[in-house]
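Worked example 2:
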Amino acid sequence: MNSRPGVETLPPDEIERRSFEIIEKELPHSLDPELSPIIKRVIHATADFDYADNLCFSERALESGIAALMAGEHIVTDTNMAKSGINKSALKRLKSEVLCYMADEDVALTAKKNNLTRAEVSMDKAATLPGRPIFAVGNAPTALIRIYELINDGRLRPSLVIGAPVGFVNVIQSKELILRTRTPYIVARGRKGGSAVAAAVINALMFSITKN
């Protein structure tokens, strides 16, 4: 007798496969085959099919992001939640590292002294990293705005900017600023986003390398 009426019983390793089968069936329209794995991974993380339409990709976004990951570039997030959501096994295989400076004491002190948000100061700190990091922003519009300013000032050349802050104040505006740059980007237009979206994009890019 089934003690869980209406519940589909699946072994753990089948749950993700089944989830992607459901996503494929319920997509509102067909997707670009190159972008499809990213979009489906974000839908999987959010159960929100609006991402089939509101994820925007610059011309070289996937190429640049994958090349950066294969080169072991740093990944910078604006939340420890996004950092936690990035697959550790894939990171290890790619010899990459995720950094989040939001909880650093020096960041807190500088932010308070200069009346800035920790997200802004975190991006300033990240601008001192070597190479061309990937930035995955899923929470703070001020982080995205600061990235835009640092790019324009010539102090930052990201390999890829994932712009997915969520909310109401300056969220749409911060994303539109990134769309104006020549920096490779993946942006969730509108108010929707979040740390899960930022992490899902990174994971999808990594899986395109490590699962081949």
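The beta strands are 55-57, 75-77, 98-99, 134-137, 160-163, 185-188. The mean pLDDT is 95.
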